[in-house]
Amino acid sequence: MSSLRVAVEPEHDPHVVGAVSDAGAELVPLDHAQILVWLGGPDGFPELPDSVEWVALSTAGIERFVDAGVLDDRRVWTNASGFYAQGCAEHALALLLAGTRQVVASARSRWAKDTVDPAVRTLRGATVVILGAGGIGRALTPMLAACGASVIAVNRSGRQVDGADLTLPASKTDEALTLADHVVLAAPDTAETRHVINDRTLALLKPHSWVVNVARGPLIDQEALYRALVGGVIAGAGLDVTDPEPPSLDDPLFSLDNVVITPHVANPAGRLTTEMAPFLAENLRRFAAGDDLISQVEVGRGY
Amino acid sequence: MSSLRVAVEPEHDPHVVGAVSDAGAELVPLDHAQILVWLGGPDGFPELPDSVEWVALSTAGIERFVDAGVLDDRRVWTNASGFYAQGCAEHALALLLAGTRQVVASARSRWAKDTVDPAVRTLRGATVVILGAGGIGRALTPMLAACGASVIAVNRSGRQVDGADLTLPASKTDEALTLADHVVLAAPDTAETRHVINDRTLALLKPHSWVVNVARGPLIDQEALYRALVGGVIAGAGLDVTDPEPPSLDDPLFSLDNVVITPHVANPAGRLTTEMAPFLAENLRRFAAGDDLISQVEVGRGY
């Protein structure tokens, strides 16, 4: 059996090259490749030779590739959905705890015990709803459970998420939000999920609720979120993503004490290829064996 | 069998009164009590009649009672060590994640991706040392494990802490710190633990290390901590306690971007009696049965 021919573009990366080598595949120029590992965004994406049977993208969300018309149905496409799930879950937990335990408020004040003490809440016994419970949701569920929280997972199919106390289909999102103490957004950005958090759904939450978004900015109607935060409809928001992104530095959300915005670092750029490498090596083995690939994109659906 | 006679001072609290009632005990004035449940601090602690066989204090750390000479060896004393362990552990996790995932830095800047992204670290694969691994350590260990961290527990005896990857006796604190990515302080304040974090032990840590203290301020030599933070010896500190406490509002630690200080809220005042009540009920049952009490104080040791 001849070895797989893999191109890594737009430039080589030691972790990815190591994975290619580990899988017994051969690094070749794009012209001769069966497989393209693309480490960039949609800008500069190359014209693909017919020899390319599979394109491995390195981002979890690929809506920008979809919008740019990069995907086609003449070959297999994979994204990195789930590869960064553990880190994104940890970041979601960090934002949720920083909010509920008033670390954010404390970082902006000096020993404000009279206001901070009564506002501290515990995850123990709280109900956390994960909207779009795929890889991040599966990784986050045991972390929340270790803190004593109950988890309600919401996903498209309603197929049970291991460890979640309850899994509901997306059609029952309102029911889930009504039960929520807090909400973590972990869904892809699609027509169905856009502005899933809006004036109406925010009103289903509680005055002590925190909303955390480690997925994509457009899941939240940010003007509605601002109104809810100013009006005391919910307690706060921890956002790793914004709409637009990057946000304007005079976005009014930055001026609110009950909001913390991290600059899209749930999966830090410096760790991206480290995290991707073992999944790529496994997918190369699967490709050679003719097996289904991890994180294959449903081209028509866009994720 | 006549019912236990319990006084609750300096004033009644519904959660504590409920626990007394649940245990089938009787509320009486202090003059007639076998048991005093004391919900205050050492100031105003009453002269005890000889009838009092057991005093249940409501704080986990009792060094202020010890310093005030309140404890005697003519009766049994219990503190609340361990009653608030779950909440304190959650707070420690919140401070650690807020630091390592740069939520603190992000709360004080606006989309500073160039500085924040490279500084984000993950707990997955990190080694977290818990100094003084009693109740808080036992509660924190599974939370850290759920995030993929390894836990080294350090306690007086070195007796294995369930779930910890390694437990070391306090005599091996230096060895533990040398292995640490991050440190959580959860020890009582005693002569042995005072200033356990000092210039010398800080130098055993790593430039990316965060130090979290949810125990007592004097465990840290704060001037040494300040030097280590300014000098890049460690990455940051998350403190729920200070020395002195409350701190001066112009304490230089407040001016550092890599420090977050929460105002002693790991166990918020508003939740104290809620958390204490089930332990008190259990201890009343044990007292009636002549069994050993939970969290009995070794009067000579001071905790």
UniProtKB/TrEMBL annotation, chains A, B:
Q: Which UniProt keywords apply?
A: NAD, Oxidoreductase
Query: GO molecular-function annotation terms?
Result: NAD binding; oxidoreductase activity
- Listed CDD domains: 2-Hacid_dh_2
Q: From which residue to which does the signal peptide run?
A: none
Q: D-isomer specific 2-hydroxyacid dehydrogenase NAD-binding domain spans which residues?
A: 94-266
InterPro entries assigned:
D-isomer_DH_NAD-bd, NAD(P)-bd_dom_sf
Identify this protein by name: Putative oxidoreductase
Q: Which organism is it from?
A: Gordonia malaquae NBRC 108250
Question: Species lineage, top-down?
Answer: Bacteria, Bacillati, Actinomycetota, Actinomycetes, Mycobacteriales
